[in-house]
Design goal:
Number of helices: 10
Oligomer: single chain
Radius of gyration: 21 Å
Low-confidence stretches: none
Helix content: 40-55%
Number of domains: 3
Strand content: 15-25%
Order of helices and strands: HHEEHHHEEEEEEEEHEEHHHH
CATH superfamily of the largest domain: Butyryl-CoA Dehydrogenase, subunit A, domain 3
Shape: globular
CATH topology of the largest domain: Butyryl-CoA Dehydrogenase, subunit A, domain 3
Strand order of the largest sheet: 3-6-7-10
CATH class of the largest domain: Mainly Alpha
């Protein structure tokens, strides 16, 4: 019998097309050669490794699933594989690409005017413009309907006032997609961050996603021309549909973090000897490693199926909630158990596992907490809203 790949027990690679395998392998080389060597230092220093952005651009990873406008138009599986490989390096790197691609470029492509698409999408794809997505507010959290940021008409402009919280890429961005309440409902505004009255302040003292920029946004009488409002989005359906796109990428990405942890602890268990035998030769450790492999394999199967549904145009938001909930929980459980198996050394950045574990504590919270996704699935099962 052939020996199975311990990181791919069901040979999911065989389910990929030639193009999908090529995308995965190309991004994997970039991650191994350029990203992973930087991540421990970047995490320790609490900095985003901006020197990786040109490589992301060269590979066409910004807006990878968008067709036209200097974007490659890859399918959903390819985008998922990109997220999985990037998060194998660090959740912060995947978050950067996810925000740029799913939360800024996708809504411009889906809800923007043709003029807005031509102006912004090529620049965002080339990394000449960095974007951020302003939805979450300090007192809103999981309830976007409690939004307080508002916009009022003033001649041919809109005037925005309010604040946003926990915004990835906030102080890096030249363009902020800000969602605000208007007399006609929630609208999306393309706010250039050098506009008078706009400011961003980084959130410090983080013990998670330290290699990612997280900011507060403040809008004080910020004027936005009417042609910078997304014409195709009115109401909460607009921003929530953006979150569905981002959650899809997360459902893939977290598997990369889990795979990184399993790979690291497999190496450790095989070489670390206690009581005259390797850790890997004990029943307790083998059972724990097997459970990690079970969780990861199940999560990857779920992500692959979700991607095929998405490419067929049949994906339902509840299916995305199920995948984000299951896969993030699985990845966090794997990371926590792998950290424990690494012993005392596992709490240091000598190993990547502690970094992944801490990052996943954020990932299980953002883009919908675990509880929110449970309730989304519960609503689908019962027809009752329990939020």
């Amino acid at each position: 019998m052939t020996t199975l790949n311990p990181l791919d027990l069901l040979d999911l690679r065989a389910e990929l097309s030639e193009e999908e395998r090529l995308v995965k392998d190309t991004v994997a080389r970039f991650v191994d050669e350029q990203a992973i060597p930087l991540m421990a230092e970047a995490f320790d220093a609490h900095r985003f490794p901006a020197e990786l952005v040109p490589g992301l651009v060269e590979l066409g990873l910004l807006g990878a699933s968008i067709e036209g406008y200097d974007c490659p138009g890859l399918n959903s599986i390819c985008y998922g594989l990109i997220c999985e490989e990037l998060e194998r390096a660090d959740s912060g790197l995947r978050s950067f690409v996810s925000v740029q691609s799913s939360l800024v470029m996708w809504p411009i492509r889906s809800y923007g005017s043709e003029e807005q698409r031509r102006r912004w999408l090529p620049a965002l794809a080339r990394g000449e413009v960095i974007g951020c997505f302003g939805l979450t507010e300090p007192h809103g959290g999981s309830d976007p309907g409690a939004m307080k940021t508002h916009a009022r008409r003033d001649g041919g402009d809109w005037v925005l006032n309010g604040s946003k919280m926990w915004i990835t890429n906030g102080s890096l961005a030249q363009l902020a997609l800000v969602w605000a309440v208007t007399d006609d409902g929630v609208r999306g505004f393309l706010v250039e961050t050098d506009a008078k009255g706009f400011s961003a302040r980084d959130i410090g003292r983080k013990y998670s996603l330290r290699a990612s920029v997280t900011s507060e946004l403040f809008l004080d009488e910020v004027r936005v021309p009417d042609d910078q409002v997304l014409p195709g989005a009115t109401g909460l359906k607009g921003p929530l549909s953006c979150l569905t796109q981002a959650r899809y990428g997360i459902a893939w990405g977290v598997n990369g973090a889990a795979l990184a942890c399993l790979s690291e602890v497999l190496d450790y268990a095989g070489s670390r000897k206690l009581f005259n035998r390797p850790l890997a030769a004990t029943q307790t450790v083998q059972r724990r490693l097997a459970d990690m492999a079970r969780r990861i394999t199940t999560a990857r199967l779920l992500a692959l199926r979700l991607g095929r549904i998405k490419d067929a145009g049949q994906m339902h938001p509840t299916q995305v909630s199920l995948a984000k909930w299951n896969n993030t929980r699985a990845a966090l459980d794997v990371a926590r158990d792998a950290r424990d198996l690494l012993g005392a050394g596992g709490i240091t950045s000598e190993y990547a596992t502690i970094r992944h574990m801490l990052n996943l504590e954020s990932v299980i919270t953002y883009e919908g907490t675990e509880t929110i996704h449970e309730l989304v699935v519960g609503r689908e099962l019962t027809g009752e809203i329990a939020f």
